[in-house]
Amino acid sequence: MDEFDAKPGIPAPRHLPIDGYEHLPQVAIEARVDSLDRDQVEALLHYETEHTARTPVLRLLTRRLRDLRADAESEDTPGGYGPPPRRTIPGADAP
Fold this sequence. Notes:
The chain is mostly helical.
């Protein structure tokens, strides 16, 4: 399939975030997927779904996307790691 036959919304192989993605084995994709951002993973997931649909690769990309979404949600909510809240001891300020 060349770029003129591509379906709308599905990135052409030359626009994927990993060069030569369409020819890479799962192990090579695993080695690169952790460095990708959410949009890049979504593009690969969309491409993989519409083309080869390799179940292990779909699982890998879905897991990475889920992790990225969870990270984004945890950044939006207060709390998490950081210094503990200051606690005052009753009567500690009294002379």
